[in-house]
Amino acid sequence: MLGFDEVKYKEKMVRDMVRLVEIPSVIDKEEEGAPFGREIQKALEKAMEISKELGFKTYIDPDGYYGYAEIGEGEELFAVLGHLDVVPAGDPAQWETPPFEPEVRDGKVFGRGTQDDKGPMIAAMYGAKQLLDQGHKFSKRLRFIFGTDEETLWRGIEKYMKKEEVPDFGFTPDSVFPMIHGEKGLLQLYLRGEGARDFEVSGGSSFNALADQASIELKKSRWEDKGRLKNLDRVYETLKKENHQVKLEENRLTLYGKSAHSAKPEGGLNAINLLAKALEGSDFENSVLRFIKEKLGTSQYGEEIFGKLDDVSGPITINAGQISINEKGSEIALDVRIPVTVDKSLVEEKINEAATEYGLTVTEHDYLEAIYLSKDHPLILSLGEVYSKVTGEDAMPLTSGGATYARAMPNCVAFGAVLPGRQKTEHQPNEHIVLEDFMKVTTIYLNAIEKLTSGE
Questions:
Q1: Which domains, from first to last, does the chain contain?
Q2: Model confidence over 230-268: pLDDT tens digits?
Q3: Strands across the sheet with 199-203, in order?
Q4: Which has the closest alpha carbon to 338: 306, 365, 364?
Q5: How many whole angstroms separate alpha carbon 65 and alpha carbon 83?
Q6: I need a labelling partner for 23 at 20 to 30 A (CA). Which of 221, 335, 356, 451 fits?
Q7: Could you tell me which residues are beta bridge partners of residue 108?
């Protein structure tokens, strides 16, 4: 087993992670040469700059959809796939430090993207850098592929797969250890219905995150309606009695939840679901709100829609990630994680039946098929052997509701970067990576790359 040289590389690794994390690479409006906004393009260019400094050959798509860095020789191509875009930071008040001003404290680096996925990509790159410096003979080419809209529609990696050489095998450092050999299907939908004349509702920031806040605001024309304002007061008092974090500012009520990744909703609290429940019987009627309250409730498992749907990969989950209600119409963005053995058609049928009860239309936004590699697949065995040697722990493969770049190509799995027992802070306020873990993760990637690019 190879050891990682922390004395030589640690300070530089942290510096390079900070260089990426301080770029607020949230998807934005398209610009020439920057299809997902200028900040994501800056992050892509910075990743290429860092890669060159590490001694890798680089290529950036002239249209701005992807970039890659490569070392080694040989016919076979081994890839590490990661992404440079991040989800929005959410409410700044819930961060102890600004999300795009990385800070090192208490043995951790805080900032949006430290865990998902900029930090892990830097770890894998420095594992390869040490091998390069030590004269390791890469009998296979190693390519780091940088995607640009993984948190939304995967258009960057799709462009790569159409225009560039498809790797023979690889991993993505965008989940947990030991590894993920099965990922649920991902279905994203919009449900739309009638608008509301007297009030507006808004909340959430993305399909794949539980909403950390949701608000209802009475129209200015109704401020004089003391009955309506008293009704809002009653909602506020009820929520306070239930110990929810809530704020009332004259004609606007804001309810706060706790964000979490929609693939692992257990640690979160969806403010959209809570608000829909709180507004029950409060005179603020809307079909979308009724659907959320009656069909989703405060659960993330959709029992009222699907009954019980699960398999070896776990239960189905459904998340209302965004909501918008105004006089023009109403809309919710649903993120559904489908167990690997469950047919998409069954899920669609049940959602359509439920939506029809409330006069809602259903539009598909995105779909990614489930993936599953057997536990005796050569890639699974090789990565498991490395993980066990470095950590001394069992390498039993896991399944997940997450949607990673492992789906983008054949013979690819999610491999790290969160160690067992460590907190997953992706998509949450105060996202961070533990420096001690950062070093261990780099050691794992160093040995995995050495094994998978050797002449064995």
A1: 6-183+371-452 (3.40.630.10), 185-368 (3.30.70.360)
A2: 788 889 999 999 999 999 998 899 999 999 888 889 889
A3: 245-249, 252-256, 213-218, 199-203, 317-326, 329-338, 185-193, 361-368
A4: 306
A5: 11
A6: 335
A7: 105, 434
